[in-house]
Write a structure and sequence with these properties.
Helix content: 25-40%
Bound molecules: 1,3,4-trihydroxy-5-OXO-cyclohexanecarboxylic acid
CATH topology: Rossmann fold
CATH architecture: 3-Layer(aba) Sandwich
Oligomer: single chain
Strand order of the largest sheet: 2-1-3-4-5
Radius of gyration: 14 Å
CATH class: Alpha Beta
Number of domains: 1
Number of strands: 5
Structural class: alpha/beta
CATH superfamily: Dehydroquinase, class II
Distance between the termini: 11 Å
Number of helices: 5
Largest sheet: 5 strands, parallel
Strand content: 15-25%
Length: 146
């Protein structure tokens, strides 16, 4: 069965490629999504993608995903660390969501060690730069195929 996966990105990730490149790398978000899309085509998966700096828009996109996509690779940016509203939206979506981070949040400032979202996600991938997205995508597809 062919699947549809949403690649969802939160605040400040539109600046990838120019933002703190020593932490987040030099690839732009478009580069990352294009490379996932190319990979997805080889396994017959359709990619939708959406980025917003606004919490409510991310919530709306998760709601819209109910019944229209099969799973979500989600980098929630700093919302990871404090957004109970996004946590509730993930639960309400009833979708498998993989929390995904470019950086190893556990090796950084203390406030990044806490995630209020991981407990309602299928799993977490962090610390592998753009590769985190591919690892999260592959794990999601394995999950959907089992
Ligand atoms: C991030 C980690 C977050 O702590 C940070 O606020 C981001 C990016 C990451 O991909 O490493 O915006 O989610």
């Amino acid at each position: 069965m062919s699947h549809t996966v949403l690649i969802l990105n939160g605040p400040n990730l539109n600046l990838l490629g120019t933002r703190e490149t020593e932490v987040y790398g030099t690839q732009t978000l478009d580069d990352i999504v294009a490379s996932i899309r190319a990979h997805a085509e080889t396994v017959d998966v359709t990619i939708e993608d959406y980025q917003s700096n606004i919490e409510g828009e991310l919530i709306n996109r998760l709601h819209a995903g109910r019944g229209t996509v099969d799973g979500v690779v989600f980098n929630p940016g700093a919302f990871t660390h404090y957004s109970y509203a996004l946590r509730d939206a993930i639960s309400a979506s009833e979708l498998p969501v993989i929390e995904t981070h470019l950086s190893n949040v556990h090796a950084r400032e203390e406030f990044r060690h806490r995630t209020v979202l991981a407990g309602v996600c299928l799993g977490v991938v962090a610390g592998f730069g753009a590769t985190s997205y591919r690892l999260a995508f592959d794990a999601l597809i394995d999950h959907l195929n089992t």
